[in-house]
Design goal:
- This protein has 137 residues and is mostly helical.
- The protein has a domain at 61-130.
- It is 58% helix and 5% strand.
- It is built from five helices and two strands.
- Strands 1-2 form a two-stranded antiparallel sheet.
- A hairpin with a 5-residue loop joins strand 1 and strand 2 (98-100).
Length: 137
């Protein structure tokens, strides 16, 4: 294999353009930006709230419930990706039968296991819905 520096010229050129763009954008923001400092402009800004009171404010439990439900359903859906990817066709055998990632002997079992998994997800969603987790009062 021939590793000459010539093959890396496009990468070096791309990096040079990116670095030049970053430096130009920072210089333009510094030169064009406002320079008058006022107490309002120098005040800390955090999450859309002015820091004029105690930082230990109480949050409603609904925010945490929605976050936890999002994580639970997001993680559960991540388990479906390997299952869906395992049903792809790899090729053909010598006797022209289709080869898949999952052997045919366990495809039925895996299908019913994933169906039970999805039923569990739906039951959890209906339970959360019935308990009023998604209602914002």
């Amino acid at each position: 294999m021939d590793f000459s520096l010539q093959t890396y010229y496009p990468i070096f050129l791309f990096l040079a353009v990116v670095i030049a763009f970053c430096i130009a954008a920072m210089l333009a923001a510094h030169l064009v930006g406002p320079k008058k400092h006022t107490p309002v402009k120098d005040m800390v800004y955090e999450s859309g709230m002015d820091p004029i009171s105690d930082a230990r404010q109480r949050y409603d439990v609904k925010f945490y419930l929605i976050a936890i439900l999002f994580l639970v359903f997001d993680i559960e859906l991540l388990f479906l990706y390997p299952w869906a990817a395992s049903y792809q066709i790899v090729g053909k055998d010598s006797d022209n039968s289709v080869l898949m990632v999952l052997p045919r002997q366990i495809q039925g079992v895996v299908f019913w296991e994933v169906l039970a998994f999805l039923v569990t997800v739906v039951v959890a969603y209906v339970y959360a819905w019935r308990r009023g987790v998604f209602k914002w009062r």
